[in-house]
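note to self: dont lose this again. the chain is below, predicted strucutre after it. 507 aa total, dont forget to put it in the shared folder this time
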Amino acid sequence: MLLIYPPIAKPSEPPAGITQLAASLLAHNHPCNVVDFNIEAQLDLIALEPEYNDNWTRRAYRNRRANLREIRSQSLYTSFARYQKCVLELNRLMEIRGGRTITASLANYQDTSLSPLKSDDLMTMARFPQRCLFASFFRKRLPHLLADPSDFIGISINYLSQALSSFALIGLIRQLAPEKKIIVGGGLVTSWMRSPHWRNPFSGLIDYCIDGCGVAPLLKLFEDTETRQVPPRLDLMPLDSYLAPGRILPYNTSSGCFWNKCSFCPERAEKTPYSRKNPARVMQEIGMLRRDTAPVLIHLLDNAVSPSLLEDFSEEMPTTPWYGFVRVTGHLQNLDYCRQLKKSGCLMLKLGIESGDQGVLDRLEKGIDLALVVKALENLHRAGIATYVYLLFGTPAEGRKEAERTLEFTIKHHRLITFLNLAIFNMPLNSPERQDLQTSDFYSGDLSLYTDFSHPRGWNRRQVRSFLDREFKKKPEIATILNRDPPLFTSNHAPFFCKDIGLFGES
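---
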């Protein structure tokens, strides 16, 4: 079987999903080949001589090889100014390729003439794959790969930024090897299939669409019902090609969310069940993967790493630096516990605080208390663990006054916040709470995952965006935090800029 990870996603680390699928197939003696077209296609574009001749583009092209060496070196991450210049020059060689309708970057791909939310547009891309920015790259790479005798080709589509190029890839495969069976899966496909309006529009183009974890469905295709638990095969990826100062090990300890109570949460709306790996298995697999890949950083991909597993990490986790998303729980009230996490290698924790107003948190059923949040931020700061705080504006539970309280909260505790992510709320199409609101189309398209709604307090998206741009981001304390965020790579590179991490920069 051939497994392909399509462009575009952030090219800082190998994709976790298809490496797990490959490991399972190989463990069951089913031959498998894995290719990461995301990193390959981006490097291919960066290497091409541009047609534009402005000073910035000429400089970016002249510096391309040096910048690729630099972004993979530890020394670059000691200077944020040098890092910004490096990333923006590499990104310049992506964005100038787009032409009139296509916008490409190291992290995104958009086409104003075709929408990834419309199945008709995706089918158009499959019929006319030459419209894709990566068509020439696909044509160059596919003939050799399609010579493989395998009947099946699996494509992992996780983000909207991958959808259009994925369907161009599918269209080319249909042209070059119509006898092949095409399977699509991944996070975005799962969300499509769990929409209440899903009616497979890709019949005749795609043979199988997979909802959720693909291991069991793929094995079933080979009439194999036994499922062994095996670690991902990251060694099948070009580990030294990614744009990071060393190898990053992505790893899931669970799927779904152990809390699973937050109102308007996409995971809850899609009824994603929570399951976690046995802690002993987690420790064993991470230990083995560390030996095999020698990572400089471990990225825990869970929606929220469970408190019990964090305790195991604090006691047993090797000191390879790591980071991940966690809920603010009572464990973080204990300074000694936070210091033990630091000793285990924890560089940074991503925290979904969402609001600085307790009433909003209660109405969203977040299950966190602002007093606990402050104590957790203080303890993590004292322990030397960076925080990447996520705030969400424009939920039905929030009005202008509540947003102002979030502003006050952030300013008051700005010294405890290392990085900030500011987002405007999108209502999931299948959220049960939408029944109490007046809704309308958000983005036109049969594959849209969200719906617009009439805000009960009149706090609409336009007002929220204006508040963020004209007030929230203008505060000097907040602007300082936002200006530290690594451009394009954001949280994927943020750990490399944390102070006292024992790898890069001054301690």
